[in-house]
Amino acid sequence: MTETVSPLAPTSFPEMPDIKGVRLATAEAGIKYKNRTDVLLASLSPGTTVAGVFTKSKCPSAPVDWCRQQLGGGVARGLLVNSGNANAFTGKTGVETVRLSAEIAARALDCSPSEIFLASTGVIGEPLDARKFEDPLHGMSGRMTTSWLDAARAIMTTDTFPKIATASVEIDGVMVHINGIAKGAGMIAPDMATMLSFIFTDAPVSSAVLQSALSREVENSFNAVTVDSDTSTSDTVLVFATGAARQSGLEPIDTVEDPRADGLLLALRDVMQDLAQQIARDGEGARKFVEVQVEGAETDLSAKKIALSIANSPLVKTAFAGEDANWGRVVMAVGKAGEPADRDRLAIWFGDVRVAVNGARDPGYSEEAASEVMKQAEIVLRVDLGLGSGSFRVWTCDLTKEYVAINGDYRS
Amino acid sequence: MTETVSPLAPTSFPEMPDIKGVRLATAEAGIKYKNRTDVLLASLSPGTTVAGVFTKSKCPSAPVDWCRQQLGGGVARGLLVNSGNANAFTGKTGVETVRLSAEIAARALDCSPSEIFLASTGVIGEPLDARKFEDPLHGMSGRMTTSWLDAARAIMTTDTFPKIATASVEIDGVMVHINGIAKGAGMIAPDMATMLSFIFTDAPVSSAVLQSALSREVENSFNAVTVDSDTSTSDTVLVFATGAARQSGLEPIDTVEDPRADGLLLALRDVMQDLAQQIARDGEGARKFVEVQVEGAETDLSAKKIALSIANSPLVKTAFAGEDANWGRVVMAVGKAGEPADRDRLAIWFGDVRVAVNGARDPGYSEEAASEVMKQAEIVLRVDLGLGSGSFRVWTCDLTKEYVAINGDYRS
Question: ipTM score of the complex?
Fold first, then answer.
């Protein structure tokens, strides 16, 4: 579809350190795309712990059901991801496919199928033939030398660039690393593709601590990104901790009360927020990256609802596309959120330019100054409700004709 | 902006009967537009009852605040509507404007300002100078001979055609009439214009009965239309009953228990649903009129939330624009609604073509047959959840590049 890379893409990719205990391989299984990789297999050393969060959709994909089921065990030996087919809304066939896929991956990695985690992204409603994994995965464990960038490339659908991020933190004198990859052109794609992210660390950390950190940080990272308000059937974030840093003398972090968990949490936050931003930057047709900051709300939850109401409003998003400092539409989006708001206390800024205050246009309003802000590729929109101390921040992008072209012109 | 009439516009306008007790006039006040009418004044005979419903926005416009306040009286002598400026988010100035506007209209119609109802639509955040009404309204009561079509034209903003509807019903041998006008290019417009509708009848009916009928019927008419999920600050529906049919011997309908209220309610429903459909047909950039029917939900409310989730989904709307029978996106929209749904009981139809059943693609699915349906200008999308007997129907339109052009290219 889109041949060109998003103008909002990062200008360079970070150097990714090795994560001991993680090995990666990619292959071409020909699921839908030609002449590109579409399968990622990650091998995880014995003792790897795992945590996950998934779509809130009431119609989740078969791989999401599978992962939820296996997560109870808290351990993982492998991750199999494919692009080109989401294995969603495929009925009993889809359930059989995940069972068979896990068996094939388990044979390749010499572990139990219940230790295999699965994710699929792409067309929905099409049966996915698990046997397509057999040849590519056969003997794959002997060829696991793929780069993180190649791993991120194998899981792309309408993404215009691969998404990788890394962070390191010293704990008890031992440097531990966190690497993450993600895909998603804004949670959406021609056939309702998905937001997927897989994060790996060598920190020795229990699945309970990992789950607690992930559940906490997802709120301000992946759950704070929106391109078009459409939630996929397949959204999946998995974090794997191989514990390999234990070989350097690091004692395991087994409880959330362990103060060393904080450092790890901050590093995890860096990786997750970095990847989440990249997804908004690769929003379909996006030409503007917009950070919506809502403050002065009664509660953080109220601020979140208002921030999402603004970030999802087609009128606000088209105003950004048109470089129009149309704060009236922001007022509309605040008003329609249904959350406590007092028109006469509302203040709105585009960048540093205050355009509205006390429920009316700012007396010192300069159309020229506001227009200057709107011409930027990255814009901060700030709203102060003047009611309390609740706040939230959402990342999004503009709504362009290119978005309609990608999703309307294309026939799957 | 848009010079051409929506291809979904009605092919002819209905003959509108006179409503005794109602006189209309329009004028050019030069509020924003040049060389077109932008003010509508309706004179209502003494004893006219009134009912209203308004935007649920937490940031309503000054005229909405005014109408809510006056509605308690239950009587009306005049209606003043202007296009070109919404008088929304205008602070204390806006409050002063509605007070002054009501005074000017009251002078023209020789009544009390509290008997004047007001509505404004157009740019928001710009002060509206009430003195602009003085000259046009001066002596206007002597020139009140405007047609219903002209009345509907005077309140248009980005609408591509005026919206009028009529229905008649015989009660106790007396024919009573209901005429309505509306504006709204899908609840939205370049400066977040509004959905406005004004309905007039000569039936002798108390304001309590009128309010009960209006509140009940608005749910399946104006509250069942969406173009882009953006709720305006100014949405207003007012119904006026002059009671002039009493002169033909019709006894007043004073309680909702009066069985004669039912006939009136059905006629009111016809007018409201007709006008609501016209709004979706004039959705900005619309090329397809879509009726979303959800049935088999646990409750009607649940069906409504799912129907709106489908009708507001940018991915579903762009699929209609692309004539793509992409039922996977419908599954996605059902799933994201957060309402009870069982993936494996879901069935989906485009027109008469069942595309999905029992949580998977219909075994007899024909891409060709589905594509044929998608080429039509009017499409019914039906979803059966298979859970209960809750149902709801929403009217909407597709999301086209023209929508983005209208709202993104245009600088107010």
Answer: 0.79
